[in-house]
Amino acid sequence: MQFAKKYFTDGLIQLTILLSLIGVRVDIDSYLNGYYSPLIEINLGPSSAYTQTPFHSLRDTLDGYSVHPKCPELDYFFASRRLLDEVRSLGSPRFPSPQLNAWLVHQVTAPDKAECGQPSQNSGTEDSTSTELQDGQQEGVNGREHLPDCGQEGDGAVGAGPCTTGACAVPKEIHNDELKIKEEDEPVSLTHLAHSSTLEQESLLGGVGALSHPSGFLGPSADTDQSWSQLLHLSVSDLEDLDSLVNARLPELDTDLSSALQADMCLEDITLQDTIMSPPTAPQHTDPSSPGLAPGLAALPFASVCNFTGGSSQGLGDGLDEAVFEQINQLGLEGLETMDQQLLSCLDPQLLEDFDSDSGLSLESSSGGPLSPGSSEMSSSSSSLCEEECGATGYSSEVDSKSLLEHRPWSPIDLSESVWHDHSYSSPLPITYPHKGIKEEPLSEEEEYGLEERELSRDEVRARAMCLPFSVLQIVNMPVEEFLEVLDSHGFSSEQVTLLRDIRRRGKNKLAAQNCRKRKLDAITGLQEEVSRLQAQRERLLRDKRLTAKTMCAVGQQIQQLTRDVLSRLRDPLGQPLTPDRYSLQCGANGKVVLVPARRPTVSGATGNKTDKRKKAKKQ
DNA sequence: ATATCCTGTCATTAT
DNA sequence: ATATAATGACAGGAT
Description:
The chain is mainly alpha-helical. It has helices at residues 2-21, 29-32, 72-90, 97-100, 113-116, 137-150, 166-169, 190-193, 198-212, 220-235, 240-249, 295-298, 308-311, 322-331, 334-337, 341-345, 349-356, 373-395, 397-406, 445-453, 458-465, 472-477, 480-489, 494-568, 605-619, and strands at 61-62, 65-66, 132-134, 275-277, 583-587, 593-597. It has 25 helices and six strands. It is rod-shaped and about 125 Å long. The structure holds a DNA duplex (15 and 15 nucleotides).
């Protein structure tokens, strides 16, 4: 039966190897039911003194996942997944995606209406209560059609700034119900943005500081272009909700985002209420992978972006992609050194305190310095493996038996340094073999006295008292067949037979106890190492979390600044520029950016806007 | 004198 | 049924 089990197990292992090679992870340990698990142990045979014990269940596992014994690549893969899950579990400030969709604001052509032939205003083609500043693909096509007339061709050079493009060179134009979008060659594609690197993140962090300084504020157009490009460069891949959005739209977002909204936009051309600026290529569907785009949650003011630190404790990781964290990790702590203090000050202290006080594990801090997970895992597993394979031999009764078998019959073997090294009061004598005539080393009188009086174990004394012709070691280590033969062939009395069996039982149990205790100590050591490793991992993840929070804050400030810039280029019916305290930009569930005036909290937006429109109409 | 550690031993269970 | 491994519990010596 045991052979059948082993045969089955071997086959199972081979199947597991094959599955591992094709990427299928199989936890064979559960099938083995502890018979040969863990697989890393070498089967030393049924008499191995170091076989599977429940202590092994406490080891050879990493974070609750069984270590795949045959496929390290899979282990690395699952370890990565595990790290990501742990980062997600840590939680992080959330950056609602609808707010970030405002990045998709595009340049608005504002040419001279006479030149561009756009006489119709408020024609009502769109609902009078709303004006699309930007629209999807359809509007983007229209925008392109108007571009030649407006003299806005070839403004793909972002670096030249808006003033070199049609944004400043051509008269401003606002279509009757929409603001045109440049959807031409995009020097900075979002595909590239999605792969923004560490340096880009660092420049983002630096850019916020520049934005925060009014003196560093460049010209409106240039600043807007630069800011938008910078924002898009640096933030897309770092934001969890944007990640899904960008991924959904990367293929189609090829818009020249470097262009800016033209200034002095007449508010009469747009309807403030439910005004929508939609990206030209923005799909009309809501990305299902972006829960933040839920209609009820979509319309959030940009100004609230930086408030995420106050109320939002929602975990960052829910939607985080691995790529995001790869870049965050690449950013490293070095980027934080260059971060502007003003940027750092925007972080909610309570948030950081929460980060530091996030005590998932309350572990002793004196467990050593941070360990690299790989090295620690390797050292832990390898050392334990080595100990099991090598150290066990010292306690292996099989090895002892083999050694004894090699010296049979009952050749003298001094095992006092390997097995019988424990108790001084119970250490066995150098074995004497009275019936075999083995030559003994001459002992001094003192030694003989010591051996006779001090080092004789109780069983040895009993054996001598019963005139047993075998030592304890011989009785314990002789094979069972020979032991049974000895019991039968020597004509021992029942008391002698009982003593022989007891001596053998106690001796084997003593070895078993030694092995058991060694395994227990090894298990404790392994667990301590794992604690140290997990603690270091936790510290590392917390650092990454703090870094992500700072990056989020930087992006939020960028958006706030850009929102102010966009609003400053718009004009109300009185020709006054819009201010952030009166208006805000929101992003709808469909990705459209909407200019919304400040509302009273008790009045619903749509109703209030319609009412305002009616009142305006009556006045006119 | 006491606490703690180490080791042997027993009882029990599983293989 | 027997032998043996594994392990918790206990006792006793050593420190």
